[in-house]
Amino acid sequence: MSYNKENIRNFCIIAHIDHGKSTLADRILELTSTVAKRDMEEQLLDNMDIERERGITIKARAVRLLYTAEDGSEYVFNLIDTPGHVDFNYEVSRSLAACEGAVLVVDASQGIEAQTLANTYLAIEHDLEIVPVVNKIDLPSADPERVCSEVENVIGIPAEDAPRISAKMGTNVRAVLEKIAAEIPAPKGDENAPLKALIFDSYYDSYKGVIIYVRVTDGSVKIGQRIRLMAAGAEFDVVETGYMGATELVNAGELHAGEVGYIAASIKSIGDTKVGDTVTDAENPCTEALPGYREVNPMVFSGIYPADGAKYGDLRDALEKLRLNDASLSFEPETSAALGFGFRCGFLGLLHMEIIQERLEREYNLDLITTAPSVIFKIKLTNGEIVYIDNPSNYPDNAVIAEAYEPMVKASILSPSEYVGNIMDLCQDRRGVFKNMTYLDETRVEMHYDLPLNEIVYDFFDALKSRTRGYASFDYELSDYAPSKLVKLDVLLNGDIVDALSFIVHTDKAYARARKIAEKLKDNIPRQLFEVPIQAAIGGKIIARETVKAMRKDVLAKCYGGDITRKKKLLEKQKEGKKRMRQLGTVEVPQEAFMAVLKLDE
Amino acid sequence: MNKGLYIHIPFCQRKCRYCDFFSVTDLTLAEDYIKALIRNIKAYGETFNTVYFGGGTPSLLTAGQIYDILSAANITTNAEISMECNPNSADKKYLSELRTTEVNRLSFGIQSLNDNELHALGRLHNSAEAIAAVQNAHAAGFENISADLMLATPGQTMNSLNDTIERLCQLPLTHISAYMLKIETGTPLAADEKLLQTLPDDDEEAEMYLLTVNLLKEKGFAQYEISNFAKAEHECRHNLKYWHCEEYLGIGTGAHSYLNGVRFEVPKNMEDFLKSERQQEVITDSVPGSLSERLMLALRLSEGFPISEAEEYANKLISAAAPMEKAGLLKISEDRIALTPEGFLVSNEIILRLTESI
Predict the structure, then answer these.
(1) Smallest CA–CA separation between B180 and chain A, in Å?
(2) Is the pLDDT at A602 greater than 70, yes or no?
(3) Which of B349, B353, B357 to probe the A interface (max A CBs under 10 A)?
(4) What is the mean pLDDT of residues A278-301?
(5) Does residue A577 sit at the B interface (CB-CB below 8 Å)?
(6) Cα–Cα distances in Å, from B229 out to A568, B86, B149, B238, B328?
(7) pTM (global) more than 0.80
(8) Do A550 and B327 touch (CB under 8 A)?
(9) Is A552 in Cβ contact with B285 (below 8 Å)?
(10) Which residues of A touch B226 (CB under 8 A)?
(11) Cβ partners under 8 Å of residue B223, min gap 6
């Protein structure tokens, strides 16, 4: 189909996890005949295993679709899939910047959730046309009218004629496509101006190098053209450019203003292709880059170590490979007295951290030990100097700390009103400061809290879910540093500090945390030849204590008819089993013990 | 040097509920089996100063059959010739017939003198039969008699164990072997959930073991190996060969050997064994006798491991052992490292740590 800017519709879908974004995307792909039925795989856009399993989108993707509307006119749809999670907030904002409209999918029985709300506000900030859609009308508990009035009341956009659909059953999906064609504006932009395109995603292909996904705002790009990435300051020659088919890239040779597509230019490092950067023509550059570019900084840090010290090199290779696809992952070598060689890794947030760990274990077949996640604390020293600490091991001595600060977040929680009490208890327990609460309708509330990030990096999601039977949703944005009373808690095994188990905690919670950690360790460290005292201490002061009793029995009593070999083999096997444990001084600590101390909410 | 001879008799009337050994109940095969044993003993042509009939149930063979087997072997004078006996397959008549062979040491699989415990284990005998068997053996002229005792069996308590040992020590015994029951997967006992719940836990088991060690010592049975106790000069010379890393020949299905520098086993295949001219040797270890193996074996003995054998590793060994000595798990004397009863209980872990140190 020939290029006609007026018939291009660039849009994304905003939805809460499980509200049916991927199913709707699949239906749209089917209806536009972009994918033959036989090639259809559930959740086609989510192509990482983890995405499919968790029903979330980790990285943005895009696909071009051809749609013939009921009045006979033909459209090019560019569906840009956005990550739904707050950890990927910046990626979401760049995806939105590539669109003129957003389809807002709301579950007909659940209504609006915190993440949906956050992303919809973001879309409105980017002047996107919002097309509300009520999904899952086939559910017995569906109440589309209530949900529509919720959309009108909470978001303030008309939803009276929002399509009521069931993406799962395929009901009324065509109405969504008609709405997209009719309501979302065509892209603006000047085709004759110098090239100006926004990078909204990139990934590493082992044959073509880095592939960047772009939205062309002005001008055009074609094979052979020399391009410049403005923030990175790097220049490349375009080798291939075109658009994204549902299952493969289509090398069309050129892209024009208003179009969404990809560029391959033998780019070696993903570090050069930062999301949000502007692509322009090297010879005839645009005067001004697109607004909104910023560096993304990790918020949560943790040490990642190979369970088997010999796998350090493998871990480094795996992290390097992951970074090819994920520029927001940062890591640097770190040494722990307890765990040996590993890496201090920085993540955008908790989900990002979990995903990286899971991918390392799954895709690179590594056994990992992860230390407790830490945020970046700001410390004013007595000499006036300010230091930032992301590793408890580097926490300064209390005597030289003038004032300690910890990062705060503004959290918003949406929940059925019956759980308000439980949520307040939880937030209070996590040192939250209540800001306000509004009723979305008779049964649902939105609550705002200021919370220390350090209190939510552990298991806040899980705790919230278990206290609201899974109904509450949660979103947060980083606000600022606030003064805090912090202490470093050390864990000692057999009298020796295990650096990998140290963490920073608020003074008021130190005792409770110390007791819990000691108990958890006691339950997870097997009995050994000698008694193992477990202690938790602040400075030199022991505040909790447990003991793993010495083992009493570990013997192969009988040795039948001189079968020495069998006895040797049994001992060998036992030796292998011990290899899976970390030797900390005289104490053998299984991997699970390190994991267990991360999950303290019970 | 004279070797040990182990003869495996794989026949049983019925399998005990905890047993995962190779055994057959078809006694009609016994004649052919004995022929094969004799054929093999002659073929190896070694000279032995200890012989051990193990099973299975060797006492299912007639005294005549035992005599025939022994006649095939070159046995030194004053050799120790042991035979395992089931208390219910050894009556007065059988025992006096057996006394006419060269067998001079009997080992009765008594396990317990508590009838409920014997029943739970699926043993064929009761406590009265067990007591009678030992007395009859003594009356028949056997002076060297051993009893097997089982610890940590279903339903066993400290009291019942104490009672069994007290009564056992009133019998004319020279040797007692005390084993902790190990639940082997695939046995009927392992599948008996209800019974498994009556098993003592690790701590109780350890207490039972220490009770046994102390009580037997009081009764004149000195511990000389993890599981073995004897009156003076009555240690089982055949078993000591295993721990002293000396050579022995095993004949019969599933038998193990350490012969001419190699460890091998005979497949557990009755048909093959009966029809082959020579038993098949499957090598399990072609380079036995390493330092760590000798350490593992010697540490089973109360006399312990001679430190001089560790040569240049002696210092490393001693420093690894030092914290264990402090914890009362072993003793380091001028020339030996020897486990204490508390150490025997955790000997796997100790052996692993000590072998890792060298």
Answers:
(1) 6
(2) no
(3) B349
(4) 86
(5) no
(6) 24, 20, 11, 14, 21
(7) no
(8) yes
(9) no
(10) 555, 557
(11) B213, B216, B217, B229, B302, B341
Tell me if the domain spanning B3-242 has CATH number 3.20.20.70: yes
Closest A-chain CA to B204: A552
Which residues are CB-neighbours of A103 under 8 A, at least 6 positions away?
Answer: A11, A12, A13, A14, A24, A131, A133, A176, A179, A180
pLDDT band at A328 (very low <50, low <70, confident <90, very high): confident
Number of A:B CB contacts under 8 A? Answer: 101
pLDDT above 60: residue A44: no
Reading the block at residue A132, the tokens are 């509300």
Distance between first and last Cα of chain B: 30
Q: How far is B284 from chain A (nearest CA, A)?
A: 7
Task: Name the nearest CA neighbour of A300 among A357, A340, A339.
Answer: A357
Q: Could you give the CA distance from residue A221 to residue A307 in angstroms, rounded to a whole number?
A: 48
**pLDDT tens by residue, B63-94:** 999 999 999 999 999 999 999 999 988 899 99
Residue reference for tokens 């069996």: B153
**What is the 3-state composition of chain A as percent helix, strand, coil, each rounded to the nearest 5?**
30, 35, 35
pLDDT by residue (tens digit) across B240-262? Answer: 999 999 999 999 999 999 999 99
By percentage, how much of chain B surpasses pLDDT 90?
84
- Per CB-CB distance under 8 Å, the chain A contacts of B206 are 552-553
pLDDT of residue A110: 86
Q: Point out which residues pair with B106 in neighbouring strands.
A: B83, B145
Question: Which of A555, A564, A586 is closest, CB to CB, to B226?
Answer: A555
What is the model's pLDDT at position A559? 64
Q: Is pLDDT at B239 greater than 50 in this prediction?
A: yes
- Listed in sequence order, the residues at least 6 apart from B121 whose beta carbon sits closer than 8 Å to its beta carbon are B16, B17, B18, B111, B112, B150, B153, B154, B181, B189
ipTM of the complex: 0.85
Residues of chain A found within 8 Å of residue B254, distances taken between Cβ atoms: 561
For residue B248, the chain A residue with the least C-alpha distance is: A562
Contact between A554 and B346 using a beta-carbon 8 Å cutoff = yes
**Pick from B4, B324, B344: CB nearest A555:** B344
Residues 6+ apart with CB under 8 A from B92: B136, B139, B140
- Average pLDDT along chain A: 86
Q: Is the pLDDT of residue B105 over 90?
A: yes
Cα atoms found within 13 Å of the Cα of residue A516, Cβ hemisphere only: 12
Question: Whole-angstrom Cα distance, residue A163 to residue B102?
Answer: 100
- Same fold: B3-242 with B291-356: no
For the record, the structure tokens of A448 come out as 């705002």
Residue A553: list chain B partners with CB under 8 A. 180, 202-203, 205-206, 209, 345-346
Class of domain B291-356: mainly alpha
Residue A579 has pLDDT above 80, yes or no: no
If you average pLDDT over every residue of chain B, what do you get? 94
Assigned token pair, A167: 């993406």
Which residues share a beta bridge with A126? none
Task: Identify which of A358, A333, A349 has the alpha carbon closest to the alpha carbon of residue A300.
Answer: A349
Is the confidence at residue A38, as pLDDT, over 50? Answer: no
The domain limits of chain B are 3-242, 291-356
Please indicate whether, in this complex, the C-beta atoms of A556 and B348 are within 8 angstroms of each other: yes
Is the pLDDT at A56 greater than 80? The verdict is no
Nearest to B206 among A552, A561, A575 (CB): A552
pLDDT tens-digit series, residues B214-232: 999 999 999 999 999 999 9
CA A428 to chain centre: 26
Q: Do A561 and B8 touch (CB under 8 A)?
A: yes
Q: Which of B6, B180, B206 sits opposite A561 (nearest CB)?
A: B6
- 3-state SS assignment for residue A34: coil
